[in-house]
Structures are given as structure tokens and as C-alpha cells.
Amino acid sequence: MATAGLRLSVNLGMNVKLTISEPTMPLASHESRTASLTLAPGGEVRHDWTIEAIEALFALPFIDLLFHAQQVHRAHFDPNAVQVSTLLSIKTGACPEDCKYCPQSGHYNTGLGKEKLLEVEKVVEQAQAARDAGASRFCMGAAWKSPRERDLDVVLEMVRQVKALGLETCMTLGMVDGDQANRLAEAGLDYYNHNLDTSPEYYGEIITTRTYADRLETLGNVRQAGMKVCAGGILGMGEAPRDRAALLQQLARLEPHPESVPINMLVKVPGTPLEDVDDLDPIEFIRAIAVARILMPESHVRLSAGREQMDESTQALAFLAGANSIFYGDQLLTTSNPQVEQDRALFAKLGLHPEVVEKSARVCADDARQQADLETALEVRAARQAEAALAARAGKLAYDATLDAPRV
Ligand code: SAM
Ligand code: DTB
Ligand code: SF4
Radical SAM core domain location, by residue (predicted)? Predict the structure, then answer.
């Protein structure tokens, strides 16, 4: 029972003022708090969110939280448009890393065999099919600690050929150094995905073979090379609520924010150490999406792995909370995703439409620029030709005048 008790008023800086009235009884759930929040309606692109401020957002009544997230979302995006990416595992299994959630880690027996890097033609075939089915971005994933030199050449060719289909390209190949990132960028890779996965504090419980700092370094290399950053995490790995807040804080600290923020719900795969972890309450998952939307107003927040295990209402709530990107296609990397027909029906039911490719806009802009350049070049050429013709005529006349001078 909530009684009048401590009234906490925190100025969170900039335009955010949060007032929380605490009951004297210990807080059992979000419902026992009342909060009033003043947020800039369009949100703010900030990198200095404190953990307390983020936890306070999480603690808002659900309806208030979703309202704020919607306001921020609508200030930056068409609320009914969803970016659509398709995933392909280009090299599956036997990964040397020990990520406890991952069916592809060679440390656990999940029944996955070791596969070789796919051939470029196979990848292009799949990319074409994804494009024909309506995807605008093709994401290729490899179960590597980091790419080996000889594999990188093949991967660069995949980027070039997939891009030539008019698709945006994304890759997730593990850690990359500065040189590898530059080469991927030069080949035309649009996005590089590398997730922080969880909070710095919980990280050691999940992965021991690469550090949080390693991950941040890779993200720095990707940014430095001029590619767009795709970085997010996984929820439902037994982490505490504070870990979810700390993960989002880490992501929001990246400057600039990642353009794409995948929020995965753990897919529990038999054989992995997390196969029996307790389910995360879907409402807590939706809260995290909403907080991600508020913290990173201009980023695409992807409702990533785990959709197959979610009902339609949870997915609809995620879109309402500000998720505006999905993986589309029957398969994620090694686990399944909702069937394409099912997603089409969901989009129709919710009145959602696939986002017009950002890259198309860029391509259009490039096309327009190219066209303008071409026209200018043609005009210049025409003018030069006219000049040359005049000069030639004059020359000819002069020539003629000399040559055909009246004979005396
Ligand atoms: N090996 C590369 C790496 O880790 O950077 C790329 C592939 S890895 C599979 C890409 C991401 O998929 C991981 O960082 C993790 O966030 C996500 N992921 C892997 N297994 C998952 C699972 N069972 N449930 C949810 N997300 C998962
Ligand atoms: C991301 O954040 N999620 C995707 C993508 N980036 C590469 C991967 C999800 C993998 C889910 C488990 C699987 O299918 O193997
Ligand atoms: Fe390997 Fe990536 Fe899976 Fe970790 S998440 S085990 S690095 S494939």
C-alpha cells in the first residue's frame, strides 16, 4: 500500500526534471511509484546520461514511459515505418569465443557443425532473394573472433557484390582493427555490427574470451573508418535491472550514438549455459526499448532476435515504444525468425510499412548529383564544341583566306 513518504526531486540536467514520490513501504514494482517527468518532447541527443537518470526513466509508470518514447520517436521518424534487414550466416559454428548465450561458440555442444565460409555467389543469391522479398539491408555474420587475412578478401568481394544489388550492407565478423575497418569501408560496407551485449559489470558472467574494452575499441575503429555503427545487446540473460540501464548508458555514451541499436531478447538454445535462465518479463523488455528510444532519439532501435518467441501484442508494444527496425526472413543466423508471411500479416494488421531505404535516398541524391554533373559536363562540352566550331570556321576562313586568296 503506497502512503505519502519521501518525495525525491532530481534535476537531471538539460530539459529533464524528474520527480518521484516514494511510498514509505519498500517498492515492490513500478506500479508503486508515481512520477512526473518533464522531457523535451523531441528528446535530446546527449551522451552524459547518469545511471540514476536512466533508472528513473525505467521506473516511470509504463504508460508515461511509452508516451515519452512515442513523442521522441515521432519527432524523428515516421512512426509507422520499420526498417527491414535480412540476416545471413556466412560462416557458421566453432567460434573460439565463449559467449554463454551463443549457439555458435565452440565451447558448447549445441549440435552445430563447423562450416566453411560461404562462396561469394551463394551469398549474392541469398541477398538477391532478400531484396526481392523486400529487405533493404543485408547483414552478413561470421562466427569469428576476428577475420583472418585470407577470409577478409572474400568478405570484401561479398560487400562489393551485395552492394551492387542496391542493398545496404552490414557485417558482423567479430573484432576488427583499424586497417580491417578501413578496408571494409573502402569496399563500401555501410554498417558494422558489434554488440556490447550487456553492462560492463555483468559482462564477465557472460564472456571471458574478449573484454568490454576490446568491444569498445572495435566500435571506435568502425567509426574511425567512416562506417555506420550497429551496436546493442541482449536482454534476458539473468542480468539485473541496473545492468539493462548500464548497457543503455554505455550505448548512449558512444559519440555519435550508434545509427542502429539492436535489442535482442535472448534466444535460449539447448546446449548453451543460458538455456535454462529465467524468462525476462516482456514488459521489462518493452521498457528497455522505450528507454533506448529516449536516450538515442535519432538511432534506429531494432527489435532484434527473440521475435519468434514473442506474441504479436508484445511486438506491437515494442513498435509503440519506439522500435523501428527488424530482422525479416525465416532465419536469423542459426535460429529461426518469424516466417515472412507472418511478418507481412503483422505489418498489415498494424498498418506498418517498410522504411524507404535511407541508402536509396542517398543513392537518389547521388544520382541527382551525378545527373547534374553530367548535365554540366554536357553543357560545357556543347559550349566547347560550339567554340571549337567557331574557331574552326574562323580558322578555316583564315585558312581559306590564305589558301584561296584571289590569285593575282
Ligand atoms: N561473432 C561476431 C560477434 O560476436 O561480434 C558476430 C556474430 S554474433 C552471433 C552477433 C550477435 O548476436 C551477438 O553479439 C549477440 O548480441 C547476438 N546473439 C548471439 N546469440 C544470441 C542468442 N542466442 N540470443 C540473442 N542474441 C544472440
Ligand atoms: C544482432 O544484434 N542480432 C543478430 C545480429 N546482430 C547479427 C544475431 C542474432 C542471433 C540470434 C541467434 C542465432 O540465430 O544464432
Ligand atoms: Fe562467437 Fe559471436 Fe557467438 Fe560470441 S557471439 S560465440 S563471438 S559467434
Answer: 80-307
